[in-house]
């Protein structure tokens, strides 16, 4: 039982780290003064993408771990480190980002862009044999809630928190990657 609670806690922290992208972009998108129905739809779509992408990653990761064993585990740890570093780096860049409108194709593009990193994490979790259903439920629910929180908060606040939340998410993923690699070194 303790093992399941530990795994659930780890997955929730990872899900929160991955959802920081959706939260921070949601802050900016919340400036559109979207209707609550649209905020609801956006959150659900982001949650669905945060289920599909890690599921695809997990399936690919399980295939890799069966074929390549320890090498695949190393790759998984390195992917988390690279993904975390990339999130931190992109949060530090001061360039203006192009705004994607939250309708039609723009909304699908937005959902895909904020969930791409969950594919890499899913790949790593697949390599390590994480429980698939638990992963996708955690990732989907947390991403949905964080998207809603970002959009709603964006209606109230002007984007001062966005950059810092993405950097925090990157730092968490970086730490998990280092921890996974640390198991090989002692």
UniProtKB/TrEMBL annotation:
Superkingdom as given in the UniProt entry: Bacteria
GO cellular component, one term: plasma membrane
TM region positions: 12-32, 39-59, 71-92, 104-128, 134-154, 166-185
One MF term in the entry's GO annotations: manganese ion transmembrane transporter activity
Keywords: Cell membrane, Ion transport, Manganese, Membrane, Transmembrane, Transmembrane helix, Transport
Keyword Oxidoreductase applies: no
Topology in membrane: Multi-pass membrane protein
Transmembrane keyword on record: yes
Localisation per UniProt entry: Cell membrane
InterPro entries listed in its UniProt record: Mntp/YtaF (IPR003810), Put_MntP (IPR022929)
Stated role: Probably functions as a manganese efflux pump.
Family as reported in the entry's similarity comment: Belongs to the MntP (TC 9.B.29) family.
Protein name: Putative manganese efflux pump MntP
Organism whose genome encodes this protein: Neobacillus mesonae
Taxonomic lineage: Bacteria, Bacillati, Bacillota, Bacilli, Bacillales
Gene name tied to this protein: mntP
């Amino acid at each position: 039982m303790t093992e399941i609670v530990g795994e659930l806690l780890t997955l929730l922290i990872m899900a929160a780290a991955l959802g920081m992208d959706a939260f921070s972009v949601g802050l900016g998108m919340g400036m559109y003064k979207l209707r609550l129905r649209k905020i609801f739809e956006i959150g659900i779509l982001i949650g669905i993408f945060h289920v599909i992408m890690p599921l695809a990653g997990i399936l690919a990761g399980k295939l890799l771990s069966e074929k390549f064993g320890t090498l695949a585990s190393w790759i998984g740890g390195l992917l988390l480190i690279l993904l975390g570093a990339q999130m931190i780096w992109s949060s530090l860049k001061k360039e203006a980002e192009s705004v994607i409108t939250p309708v039609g194709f723009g909304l699908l593009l937005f959902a895909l862009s904020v969930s791409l990193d969950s594919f890499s994490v899913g790949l790593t979790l697949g390599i390590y044999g994480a429980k698939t259903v638990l992963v996708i439920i955690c990732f989907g629910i947390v991403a949905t809630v964080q998207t809603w929180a970002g959009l709603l908060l964006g209606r109230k606040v002007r984007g001062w928190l966005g950059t810092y939340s993405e950097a925090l998410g990157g730092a968490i993923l970086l730490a998990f990657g280092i921890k996974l690699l640390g198991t090989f070194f002692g």
